[in-house]
Amino acid sequence: MGYILNIETATKNCSVALAKEGKTIFYKEIAEEGYSHAERLHVFIEQIIKDAGITLNDLSAIAVSQGPGSYTGLRIGVSAAKGLCYALDIPLIAVDTLQVLASQVTISDGLIIPMIDARRMEVYSAIFSPNFEKKREVLAEIITENSFDDLEDTLYFVGDSTEKCKLVLTKGNCIFLEDIKYPSAQEMSALSYAKFKINDTVDVAYFEPYYLKDFLVTAPKKQ
């Protein structure tokens, strides 16, 4: 079994992990207010390959976080992953960003709700069981005091939206794990390996990130 390189750039966290048989053996990441993914990503990849004492030719696959998340961040990560797959002639694996975020939570009961900030009171969210089975598909939704009213379970919220959401989600069953803010390539390792074993890969030529909602480009105002 070779190695899988995992790339996570869907949020402010620029994160790369090298895994063998589903276990992270080297990783580098940094979360900054200003996105530095374009400058950092390839440096991180080169560094962990060097630290592992291998070459890119030892890789069996590349895994990339598919979104939802930052348009720019996703484009950078997917472009890098595609370029490596083309050059090395190895498969590309796409991993759900919100599942990566949820995978940092350890609970025995209740539900995990990972959320990625989509500006104002809107978030990208999904719902997972304690064993990370998806209970509700990914949505772009506006959080209000009535959000998740239909759920009686204890709800564990994680992600970079917890600070704003805890102001309106004040019910007793809402717990905010504020130390878990961003998805990390470290948690991609087991997920990408599981997909690799069953040949769950995507077409390198046609794969596109899961933006969830259109990226809007506005024309500059006239002076």
TrEMBL record:
<dbReference type="InterPro" id="IPR000905">
    <property type="entry name" value="Gcp-like_dom"/>
</dbReference>
<dbReference type="Pfam" id="PF00814">
    <property type="entry name" value="TsaD"/>
</dbReference>
<dbReference type="GO" id="GO:0005829">
    <property type="term" value="C:cytosol"/>
</dbReference>
<dbReference type="InterPro" id="IPR043129">
    <property type="entry name" value="ATPase_NBD"/>
</dbReference>
<feature type="domain" description="Gcp-like">
    <location>
        <begin position="36"/>
        <end position="197"/>
    </location>
</feature>
<dbReference type="GO" id="GO:0002949">
    <property type="term" value="P:tRNA threonylcarbamoyladenosine modification"/>
</dbReference>
<dbReference type="InterPro" id="IPR022496">
    <property type="entry name" value="T6A_TsaB"/>
</dbReference>
<protein>
    <submittedName>
        <fullName>tRNA threonylcarbamoyladenosine biosynthesis protein TsaB</fullName>
    </submittedName>
</protein>
